[in-house]
Amino acid sequence: MKRILILALLFVIACQQGNQQGQVAEAFRTGSEGVRTNFVATAPPDKIFDTESFFAAIDVENLGAFNIGAPGDRVYLSGFDPRIITGIPAGGIQIPLLEGKNQFNPRGSQTQLTFTGGITRITGDFVPQPIQATTCYKYQTQATTTTCIDPDPRSTGVRPKVCTPTNVALGTQAAPVAVSTIEVQPQPGKTTFRIIVNNAGNGEAFRNTPQTMSKCDPQQKLAFDEIGYVEVTDVKVGGTSIKPSCRPLDRQHIRLDSTSKTGQFVCDFTTGPGTAPFVSPITVTLTYGYRNTIQKQVTIVKTDVN
Question: Does domain 35-137+292-301 match CATH 3.40.50.2000?
Fold first, then answer.
């Protein structure tokens, strides 16, 4: 009897541990941030004498669930007069490979980037200089949930249906762009999904192309028809891609409204007639460029030399 109790206790503990691991595995795909950057305290300091050198350090954290470090993923410094603060690379600094959150690494990865330069002697007593850090990176959102597929929603009978098609509200997906809602519209032989997307982060999304990644540099300019676009990379129902049915798309992208920061598109999943309702996973994958900016004010102070 004692041995049976011990075995039962071990079984309960194992189940609890398994549930906890499952919860951790699911919990990492939450949050509305991709890459977060912060100036390291006193780097640069609030005041810099014009006989000193310039030094800035920026903490870069990947808080989402997609790896970064592709060739276009860079941090740029701008906003200051390059005749006063000199030697800062105009092309920015490459972000190294930073793993995103996953079931084995639920906190993501981080690094620190440093910028060094010189200070030109000034004629006035002091000169204020804004230091703006612009982070540009490619990111991806993967939203997965389950949905009810009813190929014959008007049918009635004594046998109860296993599910009823309903709209699904999603949370965040460990990325700055999120699938907020999937509206399910059952029809005979076909289910239409209206997928609503929003920019949940504090930056700007733009078209996913090599050209737009290079234009994210603050010394250049993204065009009106490039900002606010998100690529619909794929939509799958039960492992079957339904992307060819998705519409309306502009070169595989949807446009997010500049005020509400939301956009939407619809896709169709075709089923055979007379099939019983069933529950199936639906996965939406979105890819985009993203840009965040932070700013710090420094003052260049004249050094009196007798």
Answer: no
